[in-house]
Amino acid sequence: MIEKTFVMVKPDGVQRSLIGEIVGRLERRGLKPVAIKMYRMPRDLAERFYAEHKGKQFYDGLINYITSGPVVCMVWEGEGAVAAVRSLMGKTNPAEAAPGTIRGDTALHPGKNVIHGSDAPASAQREINLLFNDYEVIDYSRIDAEWLKE
Ligand SMILES: Nc1ncnc2c1ncn2[C@@H]1O[C@H](COP(=O)(O)OP(=O)(O)OP(=O)(O)O)[C@@H](O)[C@H]1O
Ligand SMILES: [Mg+2]
Question: Which residues lie closer than 8 Å to 18 by C-beta, 6 or more apart?
């Protein structure tokens, strides 16, 4: 199934000059970018984005973290894109993330884990709707499409 997934380079990823590294890894996997923008998340949007974590011990820190600086918001498309990005990211706690994954190669602490990726197609749609208007998500085909499938 061709899916869309929402990906965000978090403020630490931007500050640590990891935008290109992350975009490069997603491109190399064969995924197609269909929306990219830099954004400063306002607090009320961050609270809606992370509503499922309200009440958890790390929630306040998480809201402070995600609103602490610019982020890069993206939509990526491809066969099984949601799971593909999750596997590229590695585990939430970078200390447990395998080497070779983005978190396993670039981060040390769960409170500064560099990247967000949707955990299911339904949450991807919810997150895309929170961060993008319809006209910002581009429908186009790329010349490598035939070389990424059987
Ligand atoms: N124990 C923790 N300490 C500090 N921050 C945490 C902790 N657990 C989660 N977080 C933060 O909350 C975010 C959301 O947690 P979640 O369980 O949804 O992880 P995830 O799905 O791997 O990450 P994300 O939703 O950002 O892609 C984590 O990415 C991390 O930034
Ligand atoms: Mg999550």
Answer: 9, 106, 114
Sheet holding 115-117, edge to edge: 32-39, 71-79, 2-9, 115-117
pTM, whole model, 2 decimals? 0.97
Nearest CA to ligand 1 atom 28: 92
* pLDDT tens-digit readout, 20-59: 999 999 999 999 999 999 999 999 999 999 999 999 999 9
Is 119 close to ligand 1, i.e. is its CB under 6 Å away? yes
Parse the chain into domains and list their residue ranges.
2-89+118-138
Residue of 90, 102, 116, 131 marked active site: 116
How many residues make up the chain in this entry? Answer: 150
Whether residue 53 lies in the annotated active site: no
Please tell us whether the domain made up of 2-89+118-138 is placed in CATH 3.30.70.141: yes
Task: Name residue 112's beta-bridge partners.
Answer: 109
Looking from the CA of residue 112, the nearest atom of ligand 1 is: 31
